[in-house]
């Protein structure tokens, strides 16, 4: 008796990318595509109707909620459906946010078809699947933990979370704008990000903001 095919839902906001993924997935006899979505909201609705084993999730979904928030809601409303992220983004912030939201695996779109199929089957069983570059980054962070933030860096991060520009942060903390920039560079390095939004996202996930 053969195992039933893995039932999969594809969520990607680019129609051409979706078409390519669907063609690829249809070529695998042990995978059954049960739906496709171009937005997070569509994915949530389809998941409730089709109960897929795996949702193949992009992180950037254009208008509406992003892939991380969609993943979080999927895990809450459809816990039997595992989420396998398939994206072009591999920053520490993206990986951390996706895994914290409940993603079972994290793959890059540059992966070979065989590796994608293997990851899908692993995700369907609830087993983690990571692209080699992502796994390397995760292991590197485990071997070399990031240093904790200083009180001043936490102050600046708190101002950053309020959406304040550098000059406003400097004025609020009675320091120069150059000092703010120096602290921001250190914060980015410690959190493994390269944008203000990324720093705030990781800080929230790691509960660095009081």
From TrEMBL:
Domain called Response regulatory: residue spans: 7-124
Ranges of residues in domain HTH luxR-type: 142-207
This protein's UniProt keywords: DNA-binding, Phosphoprotein, Transcription, Transcription regulation
PTM-bearing positions, type 4-aspartylphosphate: 58
Annotated InterPro entries: CheY-like_superfamily, NreC/VraR/RcsB-like_REC, Sig_transdc_resp-reg_C-effctor, Sig_transdc_resp-reg_receiver, Tscrpt_reg_LuxR_C, WalR-like
One Pfam family hit: GerE
Domain of life: Bacteria
This protein's name: Response regulator transcription factor
UniProt organism field: Streptomyces graminearus
Lineage summary: Bacteria, Bacillati, Actinomycetota, Actinomycetes, Kitasatosporales
């Amino acid at each position: 008796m053969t195992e039933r095919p893995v039932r999969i839902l594809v969520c990607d906001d680019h129609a051409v990318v979706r078409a390519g993924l669907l063609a690829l997935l249809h070529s695998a006899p042990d995978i059954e595509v049960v739906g496709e979505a171009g937005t997070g909201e569509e994915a949530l609705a389809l998941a409730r109707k089709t109960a897929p084993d795996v949702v193949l999730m992009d992180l950037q979904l254009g208008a509406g909620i992003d892939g991380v928030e969609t993943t979080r809601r999927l895990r809450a409303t459809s816990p039997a459906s595992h989420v396998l992220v398939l994206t072009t983004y591999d920053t520490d912030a993206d990986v951390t946010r996706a895994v914290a939201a409940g993603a079972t695996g994290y793959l890059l779109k540059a992966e070979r078809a065989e590796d994608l199929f293997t990851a899908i089957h692993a995700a369907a069983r609830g087993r983690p699947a990571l692209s080699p570059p992502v796994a390397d980054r995760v292991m590197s962070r485990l071997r070399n933990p990031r240093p904790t933030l200083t009180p001043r860096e936490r102050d600046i991060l708190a101002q950053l979370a309020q959406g304040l520009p550098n000059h406003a942060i400097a004025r609020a903390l009675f320091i120069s704008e150059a000092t703010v920039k120096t602290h921001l560079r250190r914060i980015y390095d410690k959190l493994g990000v390269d944008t203000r939004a990324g720093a705030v996202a990781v800080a929230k996930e790691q509960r660095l903001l009081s």
